[in-house]
């Protein structure tokens, strides 16, 4: 249609100019202006014919810089944030081969669930690779108004830990979408949940907790939102501030829990969603020595600020662990490259998370060891330390 319209303009403009000349109603400057206008309009039409979506634009960089593409971590590592949804029936042999190729010593499956599902997950691990997996249990917080709460859940937690569960994973539904029997949102710091956090401290297991989302998910979906592409591809990730509590409210609720239970160790998932504000994350660490974090799905935040991120990870080297989140073997390569090399200007593995380029942090070996395995060994009980180099 646009091509047809441009042809019409090519045909009509000269005819109009010819008619005007015949009528002697114009002068040369007007003719020139008309020609320039026609040229501009045609150019705009042709430009629009070549417009591409931002998802399609994928230029090949002409920059020539050293490359160190890694497929194997320098040290054995513990992935503290992974999800294996079918572990009760999963053939673990293929997964172990891939873990070995990556140099992954232990994978933490956060999706252990509870009851029979958890029992079968633990059985599969114990019967095949008991040293290579750690399984966390999950709680249904929407039970908090039921007659058996919290005693039945506390008993379930005790039995799960006796059976081999190594921690509690809290999903983002708490604070966002989980509701009580009255239909009210369950806040992260709801006092009805206090026995759960206290029990984790008593049992000596950490709580890996995901609260909220990136703060950009609450912002208008316009050209100024750096997560616009992700929201376009996944509209359900948008957090309407008219319907949901704000980012700051959810973070505040989470931090209240951290303060209230200093004897419980919390792993604040995804850099606590402060990967874009490392000073704020540092202040959280300074205030609360029981809080740790991990890198799952937020590596891109570090890779775009290599100087600040390197300084941060060196300063807080005892508080950060390796995590990946969704499992895909090839995506680990970017983690290794960002953490271990000094490479410049390379791609992240998922465009809608990061339309910017990555830069390597070239971390010191002493810091790499802590992020890869030492910190997790200190926080998550029951992992076999003989799988990793001596301190």
Detailed description of the structure:
- By secondary structure, the protein is an alpha/beta fold.
- The protein has two domains: 2-49; 77-387, Metal-dependent hydrolases (TIM Barrel), CATH 3.20.20.140.
- Helices cover 41% and strands 8% of the residues.
- It has 13 helices and eight strands.
- The chain has an eight-stranded parallel beta sheet.
- Strand 4 (167-170), helix 6 and strand 5 (207-209) form a beta-alpha-beta unit.
Keywords:
391 residues, globular, 8 strands, TIM Barrel
Quick description:
The protein has 391 residues and is an alpha/beta fold. 41% of the residues lie in helices and 8% in strands.
Note the run of SSEs as H and E.
HHEHEHEHEHEHHEHEHHEHH
What Rg is obtained from the alpha carbons, in whole angstroms? 28 Å
Fraction of helical residues: 40-55%
- Strand arrangement within the widest β-sheet reads 1-2-3-4-5-6-7-8
Fold blueprint:
Layout: H1 2-23, H2 28-49, E1 77-82, H3 92-102, E2 104-109, H4 115-128, E3 133-137, H5 151-163, E4 167-170, H6 194-203, E5 207-209, H7 228-233, H8 247-260, E6 266-268, H9 278-287, E7 291-294, H10 299-303, H11 306-315, E8 320-321, H12 332-340, H13 365-379
Parallel strand pairs: 1-2, 2-3, 3-4, 4-5, 5-6, 6-7, 7-8
Helix pairs in contact: 1-2, 5-6
């Amino acid at each position: 249609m646009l091509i047809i319209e441009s042809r019409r303009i090519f045909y009509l403009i000269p005819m109009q100019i010819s008619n005007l000349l015949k009528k002697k109603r114009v002068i040369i400057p007007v003719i020139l202006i008309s020609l320039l206008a026609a040229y501009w309009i045609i150019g705009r039409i042709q430009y629009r014919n070549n417009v591409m979506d931002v998802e399609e634009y994928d230029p090949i960089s002409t920059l020539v810089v050293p490359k160190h593409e890694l497929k194997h971590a320098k040290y054995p590592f513990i992935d503290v944030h992974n999800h294996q949804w079918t572990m009760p029936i999963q053939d673990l042999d293929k997964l172990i081969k891939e873990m070995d190729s990556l140099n992954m010593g232990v994978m933490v499956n956060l999706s252990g669930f509870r009851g029979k599902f958890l029992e079968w997950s633990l059985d599969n691990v114990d019967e095949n690779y008991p040293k290579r997996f750690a399984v966390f249990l999950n709680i249904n917080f929407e039970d908090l108004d039921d007659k058996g709460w919290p005693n039945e859940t506390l008993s379930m937690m005790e039995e799960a830990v006796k059976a081999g569960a190594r921690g509690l994973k809290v999903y983002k539904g708490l604070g966002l979408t989980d509701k009580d029997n009255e239909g009210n949102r369950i806040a992260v710091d709801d006092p009805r949940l206090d026995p759960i956090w206290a029990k984790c401290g008593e049992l000596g297991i950490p709580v890996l907790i995901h609260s909220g989302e990136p703060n950009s998910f609450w912002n208008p979906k316009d050209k100024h939102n750096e997560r616009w592409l992700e929201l376009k591809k996944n509209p359900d990730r948008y957090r309407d501030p008219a319907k949901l509590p704000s980012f700051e409210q959810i973070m505040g609720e989470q931090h209240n829990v951290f303060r209230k239970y200093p004897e419980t160790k919390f792993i604040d998932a995804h850099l606590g969603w402060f990967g874009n504000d490392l000073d704020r994350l540092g202040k959280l660490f300074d205030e609360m020595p029981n809080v740790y974090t991990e890198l799952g799905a937020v590596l891109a935040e570090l890779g775009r600020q290599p100087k600040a991120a390197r300084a941060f990870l060196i300063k807080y080297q005892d508080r950060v662990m390796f995590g990946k989140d969704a499992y895909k073997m090839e995506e680990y390569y970017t983690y290794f490259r960002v953490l271990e090399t000094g490479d410049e200007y390379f791609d992240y593995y998922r465009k809608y998370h990061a339309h910017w380029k990555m830069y390597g942090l070239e971390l010191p070996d002493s810091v790499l060891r802590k992020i890869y395995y030492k910190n997790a060994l200190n926080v998550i009980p029951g992992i076999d330390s003989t799988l990793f180099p001596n301190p």
